[in-house]
Amino acid sequence: MSTVKKTKRATRSDELYEQLLGMIASTQLAPGERLPSERRLAAGQGLSREMVRKATTRLQAVGFVDVSQGRANRVANLVEPHLSLPLEGLGDDLAFQLQVLEVRAFLEGECAWYCSTRASDEELALLAEEYARLYERGQRETTLARAKADLQFHTQIARYSHHLLLVSFSQIFYERYFNAIYGVLSRTLKKFGRYPEGIRGQHADIHRAIQARDAETARRVARDHILYTRGLLEAD
């Protein structure tokens, strides 16, 4: 006599867990972002706060959410526990700066490709606002502020790629190697006495390609942008 294994019926808490998991996987909720509060989730889903807490506790148990006492729950960076990026202290070393640029060329090319295909119209509008701020900051601010503005533009492209691995890795990479990225801009300004005009035009090319949803062009110009800077420094 055969028996049929009964499957456990999904509860409303299970459904919320799966919904939040899907939002994390698609980076609708990106690494480092705050999870909606229990009160907001409960009101939006028509659930008790106890049921919401059960779902978020499951997310914490499997490592998708970081919980800190007295702070909002945040989406975990799933790559960070498994990735060790060494040599973050070599921000002024030219050879290391060139290696960082090589990685950036690949990373930002892929982020631009996915951003072109996956970003919503609203996200493209926000990216356009960030691009405008990038140009304004480049007109009048310090080298450090320019480096931060430049990286914020590329970080937003990565964020809107909606590719979990790219978003997670770029977040770690940019944070760990900001000194090297800043060092590249500082070295470039010292060498030429100004911000190279070619870089500003390349930012415009990246922005236009993404706004046009021309993924192949976006990938190419984003890579070429970083490799151009690398070529400027390689002659040192």
List keywords for this structure.
two-stranded antiparallel ribbon, 68% helix, mainly alpha, Four Helix Bundle (Hemerythrin (Met), subunit A), 236 residues, DNA-binding, Arc Repressor Mutant, subunit A, DNA-binding transcription factor activity, single chain, GntR family transcriptional repressor for pyruvate dehydrogenase complex/GntR family L-lactate dehydrogenase operon transcriptional regulator, 10 helices
CATH class of the largest domain: Mainly Alpha
> Can you tell me the number of structural domains?
2
Instruction: Report the end-to-end length measured between terminal Cα atoms.
Output: 80 Å
Shape by Cα distribution = elongated
Largest sheet, spatial ordering of strands = 1-2
The third-level CATH topology of the largest domain is Four Helix Bundle (Hemerythrin (Met), subunit A)
Q: Helix share of residues? A: 55-70%
Q: Rg from C-alpha positions?
A: 21 Å
- Tell me the number of strands: 2
Looking at CATH, the homologous superfamily of the largest domain is GntR ligand-binding domain-like
**Major sheet, described briefly?**
2 strands, antiparallel
What is the CATH architecture descriptor of the largest domain?
Up-down Bundle
Enumerate how many helices there are, as a single number: 10
Content of β-strand:
under 5%
**Kindly state the mean pLDDT as a whole number?**
88
- Stretches with pLDDT under 50, minimum 5 residues: 1-7
Structural classification: mainly alpha
Q: Summarize the helix and strand pattern as letters.
A: HHHEEHHHHHHH
